[in-house]
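Course assignment 3, question 2. Fill in each field.
Student: A.L.
Task: Predict the tertiary structure for the chain below.
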Amino acid sequence: MTNFSIQVIGIIAGCMTSLSMIPQLIKLIKSKEANDVSIFMIVLLLIGVALWVVYGILKQDVPIITTNCFSFALNLLLLAFVIKYKKSGLR
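Answer field:
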């Protein structure tokens, strides 16, 4: 397998995992209801994605860096909306 093919697989995988939270974000924005969304899960995910960015930087792997930066921003946005729409305290 060529290096280019490996990079393409990495980009596709990163895009798929990064885009996976978009349906949740859209549902949250439309419903303005966040009581069923766990802030703890989002914070853990943000920590994990941030570590992937660091790992990508250390490995100098552009697909890992770019897709996880996008994922971090998307999940940070999700966290902001969850906090905004949560009705009863932080869970």
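Instructor remarks: The chain has a mean pLDDT of 91. The chain has one domain: 3-85.
Grade: pending
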